[in-house]
């Protein structure tokens, strides 16, 4: 493992042949001036700990981990203070931020992650046991068991993401595709590699750390997060740029009282697994006025097995999200409950690369979570392939044991209830919206029905990109019981607007869909839908 000592040491990339950047990897038109204030005054006073005073030097490739951590430790010994990063680019391995501390990265500065995996991976066996994985986890910026932490300054935190993933099979697509086609459900074994399908189009351009195509290449080692805030409270990120994540960009994990605003995430949009903001088992979180450009889910709420708690009170307002995958998502890691979520006045889009975002709004309960009381209002989409995707299934990632009593444990899945989506506009869509629960049976033949309940869709305006489409409807629409959920993994359905299955208490009002001119499918399809109130439905020619 690489180390630092009194003699300067320099970064040695784990994979020196990587790191290339291509046109389309980054969004070129971020309105920086609307989100980032470069003139935020530098902090002053005795409680300011400048990393340069502890030996940091802004020299290309030089490692400054020890100097940064000395400054952080001095702040901790002082009972709190400011870690000041100014005057250049400082490369380092994992660093820790203590309680009652502000990390201030000035507008003329950048904290840049090492390209050496040994300097960023967590080798703590206890941590592996907690997260149920044998592989090492890790992050660049760490906050754990802390309170009263601020990250600000107008500068940049960069993850060196391209240095941890293989080259893409194809370069970014800068022109739209003439045909929209889905792989069929009976092609599930090779669903990602069917030429000419939308899954094939975008997955060929993603850079993976794993040997996704069984070519005999070793899996690359990389940290799981760029900024990881864990089991902490009273945390604020404001006026800061998070750039080029190597995996999840910002993970707020089992935290409370968190504010994220005036934040820009500027990731390589083809580095796999680079979610923008992940809220994991965290409550009382406000995300406001952020710009997020990333390869994977833009803003994602998860509550997997390790949290052991209900997640509630999430407010998301005035954000712009450019995501190759799902712009706003709840799921897939959903073992514990999620409730009281409000999203409003957000723009979800993918302006300049193709195909469009996989979905705009995606709500998925796969592992036993009850997701309820979610309202999305005034959502503007553009070039989102599937505007709305809601799914309840029994993937059971936590491996809860089988029982003959479906209501007694999470083996049989959770629930989705009381969801409102209103005032949504979505030009340049390409796929129908899908809303589905499931039906299964116990070993003794007892029917288990899990329906999405209490869904309101009001003032929805969707218009398709008028390209060509190739539809292949199956003889029977099979249940989507245990597969990993994505809107383009279901194959084609027999509706161009909304396809509903296993839904109770559904309200549709003022729904307008303009399909492609070559469309032959009806606007709506209903399978096992009870108590539906439908009014003012329009399909434009």
Task: Summarize it.
The protein has 541 residues and is mainly beta. It contains three helices and 34 strands. A hairpin with a 5-residue loop joins strand 29 and strand 30.
Structure description:
The chain starts with 47 loop residues before the first strand and ends with a strand. β1, α1 and β2 form a beta-alpha-beta unit. The longest helix is centred in the first third of the chain and has 13 residues, at 65-77. The protein has a 6-stranded parallel barrel with strand order 15-17-20-23-21-18. Strands 11-32 form a two-stranded parallel ribbon. Strands 29-30 form a two-stranded antiparallel ribbon. The chain is built from 3 helices and 34 strands. With 541 residues, it is mainly β. The protein has helices at 65-77, 125-131, 198-203, and strands spanning 48-50, 81-85, 88-92, 95-96, 101-105, 109-113, 121-122, 137-144, 147-152, 156-158, 179-181, 225-230, 233-243, 248-253, 256-266, 277-280, 283-288, 291-294, 299-303, 311-317, 320-323, 326-334, 338-349, 357-365, 370-382, 384-392, 415-429, 433-436, 438-441, 447-450, 452-464, 468-470, 498-514, 524-539.
């Amino acid at each position: 493992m690489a180390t630092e000592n009194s003699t300067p040491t320099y970064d040695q990339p784990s994979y020196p042949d990587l790191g290339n950047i291509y046109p389309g990897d980054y969004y070129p038109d971020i309105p920086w001036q609307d989100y980032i204030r470069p003139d935020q005054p530098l902090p002053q006073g005795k409680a300011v700990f400048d990393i340069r005073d502890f030996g940091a030097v802004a020299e290309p490739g030089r490692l400054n981990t020890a100097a940064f951590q000395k400054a952080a430790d001095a702040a901790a010994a002082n009972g709190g203070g400011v870690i000041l990063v100014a005057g250049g680019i400082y490369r380092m391995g994992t660093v820790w931020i203590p309680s009652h501390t502000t990390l201030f990265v000035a507008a003329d500065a950048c904290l840049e992650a090492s390209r050496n995996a040994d300097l960023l991976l967590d080798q703590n066996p206890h941590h592996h046991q907690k997260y149920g994985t044998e592989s090492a986890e890790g992050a660049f910026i760490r906050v754990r068991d802390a309170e009263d932490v601020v990250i600000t300054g107008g500068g940049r935190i960069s993850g060196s993401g391209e240095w941890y993933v293989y080259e893409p099979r194809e370069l970014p697509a800068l022109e739209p595709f003439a045909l929209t086609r889905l792989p069929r459900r009976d092609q599930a074994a090779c669903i990602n590699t069917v030429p000419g399908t939308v899954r094939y189009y975008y997955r060929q351009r993603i850079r993976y750390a794993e040997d996704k195509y069984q070519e005999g290449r070793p899996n690359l080692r990389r940290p799981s997060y760029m900024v990881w805030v864990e089991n902490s409270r009273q945390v604020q990120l404001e006026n800061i740029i998070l750039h080029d994540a190597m995996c999840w960009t910002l993970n707020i994990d089992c935290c409370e009282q968190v504010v994220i605003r005036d934040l820009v995430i500027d990731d390589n949009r083809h580095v796999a697994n680079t979610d923008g903001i992940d809220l994991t088992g965290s409550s009382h979180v406000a995300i406001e006025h952020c710009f997020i450009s990333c390869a994977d889910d833009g803003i994602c709420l998860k509550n997997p097995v390790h949290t052991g708690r209900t997640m509630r009170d999430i407010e998301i307002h005035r954000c712009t999200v450019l995501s190759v995958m799902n712009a706003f998502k709840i799921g897939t890691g959903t073992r514990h409950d999620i409730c009281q979520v409000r999203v409003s006045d957000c723009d979800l889009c993918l302006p300049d690369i193709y195909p469009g975002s996989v979905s705009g709004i995606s709500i998925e309960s796969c592992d036993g979570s009850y997701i309820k009381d979610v309202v999305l209002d005034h959502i503007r989409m553009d070039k989102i392939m599937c505007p709305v995707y809601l799914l309840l299934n029994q993937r059971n990632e936590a491996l809860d044991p089988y029982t003959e009593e479906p209501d007694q444990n999470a083996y049989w899945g959770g629930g989705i209830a009381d969801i409102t989506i209103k005032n949504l506009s979505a030009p340049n869509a390409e796929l129908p919206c899908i809303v589905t629960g499931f039906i299964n049976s116990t070993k003794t033949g007892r029917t288990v029905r899990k329906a999405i309940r209490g869904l309101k869709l009001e003032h929805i305006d969707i218009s398709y990109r008028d390209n060509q489409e190739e539809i292949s409807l199956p003889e029977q629409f099979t249940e989507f019981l245990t597969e990993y959920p994505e809107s383009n993994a279901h194959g084609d359905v027999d509706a161009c607007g909304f396809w509903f299955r296993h839904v109770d208490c559904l309200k549709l009002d003022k729904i307008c869909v303009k399909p492609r001119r070559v469309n032959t499918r009806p606007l709506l399809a209903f399978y096992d839908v009870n108590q539906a109130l439908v009014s003012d439905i329009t399909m434009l020619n």
